[in-house]
Structure formats: structure tokens, C-alpha cells
Amino acid sequence: MEKLLQWSIAQQTGDKEAIAKAGTPDPKSLDQLFGLGGPDEPALMKQAIIVATNPEATLENQEIALENFEMLIENLDNANNIENIKLWPSIISQLEPHVPTSLRVYAASIIGIAVQNNPLAQKAFLSHEQGLKSLVLTATPTEPKELYLKALFAISSLIRNDEEACKKFLDIGGWKVVEFDNTVAAKQILRVLSVLSAILSTGLDANKEKEIHSRGIVAELVSVLQSSEPHVGCIDKVLNIVTQLHRLGFKFTASELEQLESSVSGVLHLKDQLSEEDLEAVKTVWA
């Protein structure tokens, strides 16, 4: 199987020397690779991680291996098999600072894809204590942009609708991830908003409400609405979060309500591009 994976990587890179060195796999192995003779996807997953974590493999081959792994775990059964075949520790290890950035990006992406809307994978990942800690450490604007965005994606996927994951995330300082900067690209703001929305997906308690007030998060939401270059996706997300807070019984101050009403009025010229449902729902907040 390892020879088969090396052959596959060589074919994708087009490296003639590597192709010659890998040789030609036997027909039975090719049938296995292309699903003609009963695919053994867990074995392919294992071999991909062997290549990805092999210090003697070239960076290009490691990237291709993780890309192949990423495609495999888009299948729900394969995502759940990460735990069954004990691959989570190896994937989590790829988030470490000494690992090349491109591999860290793949690792964060793999985590996000595997746990998204997948309670079994969420629980399995959470059982590996270092995983969540590594994600939180990686989700900082000082990291390369693509890595930062993927880490935010992985976090929001992990904690959404999962009370245990959200509690552990907040207990290890997860609120620091909800860091707004309106000078950055809209995609970054959207990812931060997604983390906030994921935190609220598990409900609102006194501690969450206290943090939202103390961190001035409502004012940050208002600033997104008041951006000189408004982004429809960001505005929609803010409207949804404000409505979410209202439904959960969040106690807005009179000043916050006034600012929200004024800010929403300021984006009504975009109403044809916004979610009509969110736009109508948010009006009930100050009604």
C-alpha cells in the first residue's frame, strides 16, 4: 500500500524521476486505488498520514498526502474512522508551530471538515485534550492569514451545538479568539462572527452574558454594521447574531439598543441583498 501511495503522489506531481523510482503497481493494487476491487479507504487514510508525518518525505509529497486525506474524510464514515484507526493524535501534531505552515493549514482544515455537523467526530476530537488547546493557540491573527482562518473554521465547527466542546473552549480562554478588527478583510470578520454564533448555539448563561458585556462585543457588532465599506455577508451575520442574543434573553443596555437601531437603519439601503428574515427579526430587538 505504501508503494501504491508513492506511485499515486508521483503521478500527481508529474516528476519523471519519482515516477520511474516508484515503478508500476500491480493491477490488483490499482483496482484498489480506483475503487474497482473493493476500496480500502481506511488503509489509504493511514498511509496518507504516514507520508504526511514522515520527516524524510518532501514537503510537496506531504501536502499531497494531506490533500488526499482531506478529500477522503469528506465522507462521514471516513471522518468517524479517524478515531477508529487512531489518527487524531498525528493530525493534531501537525498544528504544532515547528510544522511547515502549509501542513498546519491542511491539519486545521481536516479538523474542521471532520467535525462539522458530526457529533461523533466532535466527541472523538474532544477526547484528545491537546487538540482543542492547539486550535486555540493557532487561532490568532499573528499566525499566517490562511492558517488563522482555517483554525477559526475548525473551532466554530467543533463547538457549534456541542455544549461540552463549547464549555471546554471557553474554560481554556476561548473568548480571546472572538477578536474583531474592522481593518481586515471581510472573510476574517465572518470567521470571527461564526465563532461567536457557535458559542451562542449552546445557549446563554450568566458567564457568557458577562463576557459579552465586558468585552464590548455588542459595540463591535455595531461597528461592523457601521463599516465604511459594508459587506453584505457580515451584515447578515451580525443581524442573525443580534437576533440570536435577543431570543436567548440577553439584556441589552438602552445605549446598545439605540446604537443597534440606528446602525440597522443605516444599512437598509442594502435590504434587497440582505436576508429578509433576519432583517425583520432584528427589528423585534428594540420594538
TrEMBL record:
Presence of the UniProt keyword NAD in the record: no
Name of the protein in its database record: Hsp70 nucleotide exchange factor FES1
UniProt entry keywords in alphabetical sequence: Repeat
Pfam family, one: Fes1
Classification via SUPFAM superfamilies: ARM repeat
Every Nucleotide exchange factor Fes1 domain range: 1-82
Family assignment from sequence similarity: Belongs to the FES1 family.
Source organism superkingdom: Eukaryota
